């Protein structure tokens, strides 16, 4: 068995079910791989992959474009989230028109990460005048801060905080899903050019095992959830089980694609152009080098 580490960039949770299923059901083992998931909250796992200190990680399109702009040879080899999962949510504003947030205060964890990227993308795509919105950095406390009316709207993961609000009994939650307004590249599996060149069969095995786990989770979510709780994330069970099952079900909506794993070149171009316009990227990047569908199509 070849040992392989995949850096997840976050703590164990039900959304990692495709990896847990692939490990538990032997899909990686079928490829001759002994996969370890690394949850270290390393600040820049993308940089570690780019310098070949790590071979595989989970990262989003915006992170990859930023890394390529710095000359890091990272490559996105399989799409996991087909849709970017951030959203704007409110208990008092009607966000069916996101411009209704103008004149109000929006809370988000900070001016960094997927929440900030999602906010900038929504503002750009939906025509929100950002000069008319007060942004407040509130850490990862979106739900209590909104409930306490300290802000008028929050930037969230669409598959998480709105479900927490529902679980607390709130019915009238207005949500503007970023992916309805702009098609950004979200989380996927990344590696680097050296690994692709020197160990293509390794990349193929990781991609194939992961996509089998992803398909299995989509097809059998209840079984996948039970496996996750039993073997990997016990805290998602018990009194948290009802909410966490709903989180997984909602998350699966963001994974669905036909075929699974394939990168859409147009979404990469859209992501690139949005980031240039928003000032997140200070130079053009050759989008064709940022991703490959070779390993997905060889399935």
Structure characterization notes:
This protein has helices at about 15-25, 45-50, 60-70, 115-125, 140-145, 160-165, 195-200, 200-220, 220-230, 240-255, 265-280, 295, and strands at about 1-5, 35-40, 55-60, 75-80, 85-90, 105-110, 135, 155, 175, 185-190. By secondary structure, the chain is an alpha/beta fold. It has two domains: about 1-85 and about 185-295, Periplasmic binding protein-like II (D-Maltodextrin-Binding Protein, domain 2); about 85-180, Periplasmic binding protein-like II (D-Maltodextrin-Binding Protein, domain 2), CATH 3.40.190.10. The strands form two sheets. The protein has a five-stranded mixed sheet. It has a five-stranded mixed sheet with strand order 7-6-8-5-9. The longest helix is centred in the C-terminal third of the chain and has 20 residues, at about 200-220. It is globular and about 55 Å long.
Can you count the beta strands? 10
Mean pLDDT: 97
The H/E string reads EHEHEHEEEHEHEHEEHHHHHH
Secondary structure category: alpha/beta
Q: Order of strands in the sheet with the most strands?
A: 2-1-3-10-4
Q: How widely separated are the two ends? A: 21 Å
What count of helical segments does DSSP give? 12
Quickly give the CATH architecture of the largest domain: 3-Layer(aba) Sandwich
